[in-house]
Design brief:
Elements (H helix, E strand, L loop, with lengths): L1 E6 L5 E6 L7 H7 L18 E6 L9 H7 L9 E3 L13 E4 L6
Parallel strand pairs: 1-5
Antiparallel strand pairs: 1-2, 3-4, 3-5
């Protein structure tokens, strides 16, 4: 299991525990945890409605793919630590990470 923190737009932080041996994406775990993530394209890196910002723990994630960057760079708010949750696989590199929800449906 991997433990990380999710921060909403109000600054509230909640711990999340996710299995790291089933190939889930961060988007799938956020949706299963009842966070307001639209994930309109179903995880294909085509819509950016699963936009998150990695506040802590980005070092082990690697770089965003070209397809992911294409979506992120078109967002009104894009940060150097922005990622699409659908493109991040749950693994031990997320242990202790802090992830801020940034998708367009988050209020």
């Amino acid at each position: 299991m991997v433990n990380f923190i999710v921060e909403d737009n109000d600054g509230n932080r909640q711990p999340v525990e996710a299995p790291d041996d089933m190939g889930f994406s961060l988007m799938e775990i956020l949706k299963a945890s009842d966070y307001p993530v639209l994930a309109t394209c179903g995880g294909m890196a085509l819509c950016a409605t699963c936009h998150v910002e990695i506040l802590e723990g980005k070092d082990g994630l690697g770089d965003a793919t070209d397809a992911e960057l294409d979506q992120l760079e078109n967002l009104p708010e894009y940060f150097p630590t922005s990622r699409l949750a659908c493109q991040i696989r749950i693994s031990d590199v997320l242990e202790g990470a802090v992830i801020k929800l940034r998708g367009e449906d988050v209020v």
